């Protein structure tokens, strides 16, 4: 499987950070006489790396410049005033502290790129998916594809085609009254009930999952769709008395409407939905 560039950057930066930590710990523990001094510099290197992680690489570089200036001043003091010698100790932290910053910045950069790629994949999956994951119902994308075929068949073979649209009355109020989990259960229950109410050659779609709206493509005329509406309304009334009132503590009331396909008035699937939604508004 081919790895993305951002994944390679993230993994490489993580390994570089671990390697830098290992080298710093070994160096710090290797000279007991300068143990406290090395611990202080190691903590400063970690602090600059943490600040870089939560801000930007520019902030990290500015802090590194300040550290180098301060450490240079400290080295100069040790050499001129105290009389110490310049050795490996003086160069080590001048190299390792910026290395910690660079490794942290690369790790942050790789992780952000991976997050962006993940968000893009999620959006692409949502736009290309034809089935809703929660209810296993076909979505609007699938409806447009199927409706185009059914509309063509209706015209060619003079088969009556009707779109029935279903929504839940007072859904915004119900959202505030019951929890999110129960809302998802209600959508699933209503979807299953709607599937039972139609024939096997009819199709059910979840057209909107935020403010639930279902669509049914029925191979029947408008009077036949009205029979389905009454059948579904009766089933919901029965479930409200027997189950829904106890399960959700509220009654689920449906708004339904249907429109027969007319090639002269409806030119595409989205117009088909728009016409059906107008009929739903009349169901008060």
TrEMBL record:
Keyword Phosphoprotein: no
Xref: Gene3D superfamilies: 3.30.70.270
Residues annotated as domain GGDEF: 129-279
Coiled coil: none
Enzyme class of the recorded protein, top EC level: transferase
Secretion signal span: none
Bilayer-crossing regions: 12-29, 35-54, 61-85, 91-110
Keywords from the UniProt entry: Membrane, Nucleotidyltransferase, Transferase, Transmembrane, Transmembrane helix
EC number: 2.7.7.65
A molecular function (GO) term: diguanylate cyclase activity
UniProt cross-references to InterPro entries, sorted A to Z: GGDEF_dom, Nucleotide_cyclase, Rev_trsase/Diguanyl_cyclase
Pfam family, one: GGDEF
Keyword Membrane: yes
Official protein name in the record: Diguanylate cyclase
Organism: Paenibacillus alba
């Amino acid at each position: 499987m081919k790895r993305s560039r951002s994944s390679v950057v993230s993994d490489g930066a993580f390994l570089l950070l671990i390697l830098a930590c290992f080298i710093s710990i070994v160096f710090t523990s290797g000279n007991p006489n300068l143990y406290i001094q090395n611990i202080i510099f190691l903590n400063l290197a970690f602090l600059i790396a943490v600040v870089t992680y939560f801000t930007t690489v520019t902030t990290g570089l500015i802090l590194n410049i300040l550290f180098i200036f301060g450490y240079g001043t400290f080295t100069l003091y040790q050499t001129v005033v105290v009389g110490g010698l310049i050795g490996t100790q003086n160069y080590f932290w001048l190299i390792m502290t910026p290395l910690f910053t660079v490794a942290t910045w690369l790790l942050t950069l790789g992780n952000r790129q991976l997050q962006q790629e993940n968000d893009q994949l999620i959006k692409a999956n949502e736009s290309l998916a034809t089935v809703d994951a929660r209810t296993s119902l076909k979505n609007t994308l699938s409806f447009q594809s199927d409706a185009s075929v059914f509309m063509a068949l209706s015209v060619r073979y003079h088969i009556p085609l009707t779109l029935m649209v279903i929504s839940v009355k007072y859904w915004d109020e119900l959202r505030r009254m019951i929890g999110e989990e129960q809302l998802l259960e209600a959508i699933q229950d209503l979807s299953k009930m709607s599937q039972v109410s139609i024939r096997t050659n009819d199709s059910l779609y979840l057209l909107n999952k935020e403010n639930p709206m279902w669509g049914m493509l029925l191979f029947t005329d408008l009077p036949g769709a009205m029979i389905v509406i009454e059948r579904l309304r009766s089933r919901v009334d029965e479930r409200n008395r027997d189950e829904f009132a106890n399960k959700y503590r509220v009654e689920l009331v449906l708004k339904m409407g249907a429109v027969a396909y007319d090639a002269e008035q409806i030119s595409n699937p989205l117009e088909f939905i728009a016409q059906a939604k107008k009929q739903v508004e009349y169901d008060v």
